[in-house]
Design goal:
Elements (H helix, E strand, L loop, with lengths): L13 E5 L29 H13 L4 E5 L9 H11 L4 E6 L4 H11 L3 E5 L5 H8 L4 H13 L5 E7 L7 H13 L3 E6 L7 H7 L4 H9 L3 E3 L9 E4 L7 E4 L12 E4 L4 E3 L7 E3 L10 H11 L20 H4 L2
Parallel strand pairs: 1-2, 1-10, 2-3, 3-4, 4-5, 5-6, 6-9
Antiparallel strand pairs: 7-8, 8-9, 10-11, 11-12
Bound molecules: S-adenosylmethionine and iron/sulfur cluster (SF4).
The site of iron/sulfur cluster has 12 residues, from helix 10.
Length: 330
């Protein structure tokens, strides 16, 4: 059986699939002016049958986990159909999503019923006004209500991502607020270091701060560093016996971040990206058009693995093809 392995011995059982660039939020670091339609661009996002072929090929190549992301993945009308296809037709064992939580209170039950295996929800602040200022939307209450519903339905795997922003959500008071939340809720809260992209240099320069500030807080409050678990991903996790949830840090600028990379990305228009950053990526869409192209597609993907670099070189300011994360899926 062919598998996905690069020149550094890393294997790739995990795909992040962006299913749309469209987003209904306006996060300052990502799409500060909201999603802009490019009228000159008539290439549409991957269609259902293309997604089905793609997932089947990756399943044959040993991929067992796929994350649907975007843009905002839930804006697609066929979002639930896509989940069904990944699980039932392609046999992907773990289907997870990353969402901004828009209308989560209305969608929570459908999400649980769809059989997804995990949800990452982006909430940059538990302060309603700060949340509104960052995202352009006063929707924190509906998201928190959605989380409550997920919990009432016994949905287990809930993670919250917050981008660490200097002077906005990176004070001890902000960390304490999250602490109170995860004391009572079995939810993992992970702070992600703000990353520089092609579009956000000014924002990055103004608000980027090292996650050391949060690490120091965790050490001061006696949180215990948990060594890597099987599905730990890029997050450094911290536990505390008095809390139901965990804290985590995602520090892409740290020295060893890429060492454990286990994921590849597919953009919403069918480009294979070997890294979130950098210039390595080719379109595979032309081989998603017919069922009899599957072997050719498989060979093309496997052949690309030798081009995966050891690191993203983000610390050198190399953002490559990534204008903002809505196009590649964060
Ligand atoms: N719209 C969905 C959401 O916000 O969760 C999914 C796509 S979004 C691009 C995925 C994640 O990337 C979010 O948690 C978001 O906060 C994060 N993100 C976006 N731009 C980022 C940046 N420049 N640096 C760090 N994280 C970023
Ligand atoms: Fe939309 Fe997610 Fe980007 Fe925010 S981070 S603008 S929610 S795609």
């Amino acid at each position: 059986m062919q598998t996905l392995k690069d020149s550094f011995g890393r294997t790739f059982p995990y795909i992040r699939l962006s299913i749309t660039d469209v987003c209904n939020f306006k996060c300052g670091y990502c799409l500060p002016n909201g999603y802009q339609v490019d009228k000159s661009d008539n290439r549409k996002f991957l269609r259902l049958e293309e997604i089905k072929r793609l997932a089947k090929v990756f399943s044959k190549l040993g991929v067992s986990k796929m994350r649907l992301t975007g843009g905002e993945p839930t804006v697609r009308k066929d979002f639930f159909e896509i989940i069904k296809i990944l699980k039932n037709d392609a046999g992907i064992k773990r289907v997870v999503i990353t969402t901004n939580g828009y209308h989560l209170n209305e969608k929570a039950k459908m999400l649980v019923d769809s059989g997804i295996n995990g949800i990452n929800i982006s909430i940059d602040s538990l302060e309603r006004n700060i949340f509104k200022n960052i995202t352009g939307h006063d929707r924190l209450p509906e998201i928190l209500q959605g989380i409550k519903i997920l919990q009432q339905l016994n949905f287990e795997n809930i993670k919250i991502n917050a981008v660490l922003l200097n002077g906005i959500n990176a004070s001890e008071k902000d960390f304490d607020l999250w602490g109170e939340f995860i004391k009572e809720n079995k939810v993992d809260l992970r702070y992600i270091e703000l990353m520089q992209t092609g579009d956000n240099l000014n924002y990055f320069n103004k608000y980027h701060i090292s996650s050391k500030i949060f690490k120091d807080y965790l050490n001061k409050k006696k949180w215990i560093y948990q060594t890597f678990g099987k599905d730990a991903g890029p997050s450094l996790n911290y536990i505390n016996p008095d809390y139901k949830g965990k804290f985590g840090i995602i520090a892409p600028y740290s020295k060893d971040f890429c060492r454990t990379c286990n994921r590849l990305r597919i953009t919403s228009r069918g480009d294979l990206r070997l890294c979130l950053f950098g210039n390595t990526g080719i379109s595979i869409r032309h081989l998603l058009q017919r069922d009899d192209q599957i072997e050719e597609l498989q060979d093309l993907i496997v052949g690309q693995m030798k081009f995966k670099k050891v690191s993203h070189y983000l610390e050198l300011g190399e953002t490559g093809l990534t204008k903002n994360l809505s196009t590649t899926g964060g």
